[in-house]
Amino acid sequence: MVHQALQLLAVRIRHLSEQITALKKQITLTIRALNPDLLKGFGVGPDSAAALLIAAGENHNRLTSEASFAALCGASPVEHSSGKSRHRRLNRGGNRQANAALYRIVLTRLRREERTQHYLERRSTEGKTKREIIRCLKRYVAREIYRYIRAVSLPQPAPGTG
After folding, report:
1. For the chain, how far is it from start to end, CA to CA, in angstroms?
2. Helix (H, G, I), strand (E, B) or coil at 154
3. How far apart, in Å, are the Cα atoms of 24 and each of 99, 126, 159?
4. What is the pTM of this model?
5. What is the pLDDT of residues 108-162, one digit of tens each?
6. What are the sequence ranges of the domains in the chain?
7. Quick count: other Cβ atoms within 10 Å of Cβ 37?
């Protein structure tokens, strides 16, 4: 009985894995058709690129600058203070999926890109916390992604849809 149940689960897992692979290929083809350079960014995979393109496409009229895209993704700094100390924290607004995509890109770069690792070391010696460094890196990645997105004109929404 247990053997049968495990066998059914294995078949289901294999089937779902095949579906995931097919969908990921379709997403990659769609992204390459819309913005082929976006996937060339270090750490930008199909899932992250899709989330960022969706955020930009839904709000294409709001994308006037790198700062507006960073705010749209929730990666813009917000000043806050507590008594004498002044700090910046991450904007809690914006598109949460786009923010999560930026976070995944930053984590990938922290693990695998030497330039980003050196940046982390340098900013750590300056007294920044890892959380503050990640906030800065997300803003940097947002700037980079914005340049990729603006290099290709965004598709216009159909009349009456938004």
Report:
1. 54
2. coil
3. 20, 40, 29
4. 0.79
5. 999 999 999 999 999 999 988 898 899 889 999 999 999 888 887 665 656 665 5
6. 35-80+88-151
7. 13
